[in-house]
Amino acid sequence: MEKKYSELGELREKAPKLFGVPTGTKLDNMFWKIEFEGKPIKKPLGGLPHLSVINLTGIPDSGKSLLAEQFALHQASEGYKVLFVTVESPANFLYTSLRAKSRYLNLDFDEISKNIVVIDASENAELREDPRALMDTMAYAIKEKRTNNVVIDSITGLYEHKEMMARQIVRQFFNFLKKWRQTAILVSQKRSAQGADTAEAAGGLAVAHIVDGSIVMDKKLIESKWEMSTYRLPIGSVLRTIRIDGCRLTGHDTRTWVFDITEGGTIEIISPLEEYIKRGDRNGSD
Asked: How remote is the C-alpha of 123 from its chain's centroid?
């Protein structure tokens, strides 16, 4: 009979090393690890946990795709291969967006373009509707191009109209990414419904329950004098926030942080929300 268990010590050689995969944003300092130098010392991890599968979620136009693209650009600029699965926007539009952002960030797009591999599922019904077909295509690209990172934008687009299968579909991709040893960002659309037993909510809950961690992005429209006074922003403007909602692989900052979307369409994390309110400015600090 095949052995279906392991003693904990037998897993030592298979255990992944804990280090950060940089995003090029202040998120890199918001994950940490504990090292022992006579006493426990908390040190920044330097990025997303290596080989983690991170759920990047939020309401529409909260900056999810921008952050995912910035992560891909930063990794590619450092010489690491990225597989970008675009489910929402056609690949030619993704090219335009990445080129513009790379120029704004003063990165070498010619070199970056060699390190980003794109699978366009936006206009291919088979890849969107059949998880096995998409994973076979991804496996071929990962093997041939030796990628280190994967972005799927969005995972929600892979279970449209079949929300009750969301957990099964997300689990398949989670296991696939673990098997192929990829650090991954899954962009997911936050649902408006709050009932956990509804079909609409099922898709939103599926990702967070399965992945290694979640990052929540949000935006708030300033609509009252109280909000204008509290956030020191004019009525009609938008306050954008980002928060690590959880991560089972390593320690992390649980505070809500304020961020801006720059003129170049990149993410600039400013400061924790409570410090932002106390200072009443937009300069931020680490």
From this structure: 23
- pLDDT tens-digit readout, 209-261: 899 999 999 999 999 999 999 998 999 999 999 999 999 999 999 999 999 99
Range 278-281 contact pairs with CB under 8 angstroms and sequence separation of 24 or more:
280/232, 281/232
Span between the terminal Cα atoms of the chain, in Å = 56
Q: Which two tokens stand for residue 130?
A: 């059949």
| pLDDT computed for residue 152 by the predictor | 97
Whole-angstrom distance, CA of residue 187 vs CA of residue 227: 29
∠ Cα 206 158 199 (to 5°): 45
Question: What's the distance, CA 259 to chain centroid?
Answer: 15
**Before 154, cis peptide (omega within 30)?**
yes
pLDDT tens digits for range 21-53: 999 999 999 999 998 888 889 999 999 999 999
How crowded is residue 16: how many other Cβ atoms within 10 Å of its Cβ? 12
Q: Which domains, ranges and CATH numbers included, belong to the chain?
A: 27-215 (3.40.50.300)
